[in-house]
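haha ok so turns out i had the wrong file open the whole time. this is the CORRECT one, sorry everyone. sequence first:
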Amino acid sequence: MNQKTEIELLSPAKNYEFGKSAINFGADAVYIGAPVLNARLNASNSIEEIEKLCKYAHSYHGRVYVAMNTIIFDNELEQAQKTVKQLYEAGADALIIQDFGILEMELPPIPLHASTQTNNVSIKHIQFLEKVGFSRVVLARELELYQIQKIKQQTNIELESFVHVAVCVSYSGQCYMSYFLGNRSGNRGQCAQ
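then structure:
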């Protein structure tokens, strides 16, 4: 398996201003919430704002990944497909997804990153994601360094790992506590944290 390791500093961006600041201070890439269906519901951005950030980041050789990483209901599929097309046209460098239903859509040639919400903990699961066309896997926050190294030894897919995150009482991709306690689903971008 490929052992070449290239480090990318990826920062969250609540909006254009945060993304611009991250790029200005050395981030190689930022991730930002899509206008709909993202797990950062309070950090949703318009297509126009995302396009503006893409143009800015690209002028500094930065990249913009857009999170559209919630579970998608059947009545939202058409909207999801339209949004993916708009994000591609806006210049997004990749789409971070949770719902595998997106794989069945007619997609533009935008790279797909498997969100940590897809419960990326086992080598077999990550090898599966690689086979079905994902270009990157966002690993579960709960993995230890030796586990990440073991996965890297057995896959060629790009791996992304959090180095600083919100503390959560649930497990990546198994976010049910907020829904159980307060009817606010982390899988729909409403985590109570």
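The beta strands are 10-13, 29-33, 63-68, 94-97, 112-114, 136-138, 158-160.
again sry for the mixup
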